[in-house]
Amino acid sequence: MANKLFGSSGIRGIVGEKLTTEFCVDIGKSIGSLLPEGSNVCISTDARVTKDYIKNAVLIGILSTGVNVTDFGLLPTSILAFTTKHLKFDSGVMITASHNPPEFSGMKLWSSEGMGYSKNKEIEIEKLYESKKFRKVSWDKIGILTKRDDAVEGYFKVIKEKFPNIKSDLKILVDPGNGAMSGIASKLFNELGLNIITMSDKPNGMFPNRNPEPKRETLTKTIEKLNQENADIAICFDGDGDRVVFCDKRGFIEYNEAIGFVAKNIISNSKDKICITTVETGMLFDLAVKTESGTVKRCEVGDVFVARAAKEKNAKMGVEQCGHYIIPELGFYPDTIYPTLSLIKNIKSADEIREFFTKIKSLFYDKIGVECKDEEKYVIVDKISKLETKLKPLEINTLDGMRMEFSDGWILIRASGTQPLIRVNAEAETQERLKEFLCEGKRLINLIICKVQK
Known about the structure:
This protein is an alpha/beta fold. The chain has three domains: 11-149, Alpha-D-Glucose-1,6-Bisphosphate, subunit A, domain 3 (Alpha-D-Glucose-1,6-Bisphosphate, Chain A, domain 3, 3-Layer(aba) Sandwich); 154-358, Alpha-D-Glucose-1,6-Bisphosphate, subunit A, domain 3 (Alpha-D-Glucose-1,6-Bisphosphate, Chain A, domain 3, 3-Layer(aba) Sandwich), CATH 3.40.120; 364-453, Alpha-D-phosphohexomutase, C-terminal domain (TATA-Binding Protein, 2-Layer Sandwich). The protein is built from 14 helices and 20 strands. The strands form four sheets. The protein has a six-stranded mixed β-sheet, with helices on both faces. It has a five-stranded mixed β-sheet with strand order 8-7-9-10-11, sandwiched between helices.
C-alpha cells in the first residue's frame, strides 16, 4: 500500500482541490516540526503558474516552526537536490508536479545528503499532518527567510569539472518544454561550446508548446523542428527537468534503448559495473549493459528506491526507463545533464544509438494506462495479484505491483505513484505477443474494477 499523502515521487494534486492553502501550510509545519529548531532548509519551484501560491503557503508553515528557509527561486529539481547536498542544507523542498499537467502542483523533499525522503520519513510527516501536533515557537524564534540566486552557477562549476574538454560536431536541439530547465541547459551547453538550437526555452507554467511529459506522443513538433533545422539529436526535458529523453531524425528514441545506450557508455571505462533499475524497465537495458560486462539489479519504481539501491549496492549508476538517471558520483538524485553530456561525448552520429540495438535481440516494448481512482488503485492491483491469468506465467514477482515473466517477455501491472492510473508495461519478442500481453493486463484490471465498483 502507498502512503496516504505521498506517491512514488512526493506529494501531488490539483491546486485548489487537494492542494489548498491550509493543506500546504500544514505540510510546511509537518516538514519543519521534524527538523531541529534553527535548521536550514532550501526551497525552489518549477515553472507552474501556481508556484508562488504553493511555495508561500509551505514557507509560512516551515517558518512557523522555527526553521530558516533559503529561497532559490525557479530551478530544476536536480539542481535543488544538488544544492541541498553541496551547500549543506538540512533539507530541501522542491515545489513541483514534475511531468503532470499545469493544474497540478506538489512537493518533493530532499535529505541533507541530497536523497529523496525515505518512506519512513514520509510516514512521519503524514502522522504529524494528521495529528496537527506541530512545534510552536515564540515570535522571536520564527524562522528567517533569505533569498539566493547562485545555485545554477554552483552546479555548472561541478559539471564543467566532470566534462572539461567536451567536443562534438553534432547539431543539438534543446527542448525544455517551457519547464524548469528552460534557459539553463542551453546556457550550459553554449558555455561548453556545443552547437545548439533551442525551442520552448522560456519558462511558462501553462506549457503552451507541448505537454510537460516528454514522450513519443508529445514530441511530434520537436521532431519536425529537428528535421527542419537539420539537427542531429534533440534533448528533451520534462516539466521540472529531472527527466531527459532523446529524439533523432527518425523520431523518438524509445525509453529502454536510450537508457541502455547511456548506461553502457557510462560504465564502459569504469571498474564499477553495477546498474540499478526498476521492475518497469525492459530487457533491452539488461542486454545493453551486458555488452560492457555490467550487472543489472532491480528495485521498486521511484527514483528514491533507485537511489537507495544504488547506494546500498555501490552501483555506478541507477536509472528509470522514463528518463531518470542517478549518478552517485554527483549525488543520489535524478540528474539529466550528466547523462546528456555523456551521450554527446560518446557518439559522432545519432545513428549510433539505433545501429547499436540492431546488433542486439529484437524486442518490443510498450505501456498503457487504465484510469482508476487513487483510493482504489492499490487495492485493485493487490486483488489482481491473486487472480489466475490464462497466459500461464513462469514466475510472478510482487516486489512492486505484479510482474509476470514468460519465456518470450513479461507484463507488469502496478498502480501509478503519481496519477490516478493503473499501468500495464509489457515487453515481448513480437508485436503480436506484445499486444496480447497488454490486452491481458487491461482485461485483468477491468475485471477487478467492475467487481470493486459493484
